[in-house]
Fold beta-ketoacyl-[acyl-carrier-protein] synthase III.
Amino acid sequence: MANATAGTVSLNLPGMHAGARDVVRLGMVRSRVCCYRARRQGLVMCAALSGNSNEDAVLGDVVSKPRRFPRVVGMGSKLIGCGSAVPKLEITNDDLSKIVDTSDEWISVRTGIRKRRVLTGEESVQGLAIDAGKKALEMAQVEPEEVDIVVLCTSTPNDLFGSGTQVSTAIGCKNAWAFDATAACSGFLVGLITATGFIKGGCAQNVLVIGADCLSRYVDWTDRGTCILFGDAAGAVLVQATAAEEDGFLGFDIHSDGQGYRHLNAKSCGGVEEVLSSTNGSLNFPPKKPAFSFIQMNGKEVFRFAVRCVPQSIEASLEEAGLTSSDINWLLLHQANWRIIDAVATRLHIPSEKIISNLANYGNTSAASIPLALDEAVRCGQVKGGDIIAASGFGAGLTWGSAIMRWQ
């Protein structure tokens, strides 16, 4: 491995052409990582430098890589329909103040949230996903039989093995291949990028992307630090193939950093029963009934991560799209906390009147938050045809990313 010194160095990596071994150092891009560009081949390589454990690494400290291939390969994609669904039960901040030590003022000042929706009775996240998907198809004027792929973005399916196939069948997408995508609050963005990848690769004409979550089932309702944040909902969009020159998916950027897992998670807590006497202590068997812990979050670290990484990601997507922040009609971020949304907008020099947000009414709905807010903005006439939207999701994993889109 080359030393992290200035000037020309030599890297000897398996499979590297001899002419590419002389590289010029681009500089330190993160703690103990140095990037180099091969003089002859234009390659960009990152080398980890020696140092301490991951505990002192900066979360999300990565660089967006130059694109090796053009995004558009033969055709483009566009958003032509959206839909959403929320539970009937509304829980206000005043309602929460009756079960935890909090108040409407305390919550709203720190988060921007005033109420949220929560699943009850016979309602399910699967049912919300079905309703949202049907509404998106109705707006797009696309029949369920015409859908080629259904992507259900959720971290809280009804079934351990996923609910995408059940949702697809219930909507009537009998010709579609369906699957689940799990990336927490970044889930919808991951689904959107996946959809456009299938379309631009020539594998699909219509892709239904649904974001749906019920994090209320995994919240400790005695912890005022987390129970005030989350709500349940579903949102969906129909992504359709179009001519390359009409492409509405202009650029994207996406990342993950497992070092941040410790700051936001809901771990499996299934243990083991007492050792059976017949095993002579050789096996921990049988396992306990599987379960997950409540959501655990280090709010300060997640805030720092989001306000640093999200603007960087959006700027990378804008660069790929050949645009600047002044070209954006709307900023649509994952609805996690108003302080995060405001800080990101400020760093990008985007005025508040260009921000789409329904955080006050629904709280953090995880993978549903972006399509839910988009659907409301479209149906009320706020977002119009031809508008450029900069969207970004971020959350557990840690995962984050952004996309620049043109609404139909």
Notes: The first strand starts at residue 8 and ends at 10. The chain is about 25% helix and 25% strand. The domain at 76-246 is CATH 3.40.47.10 (Peroxisomal Thiolase; Chain A, domain 1).
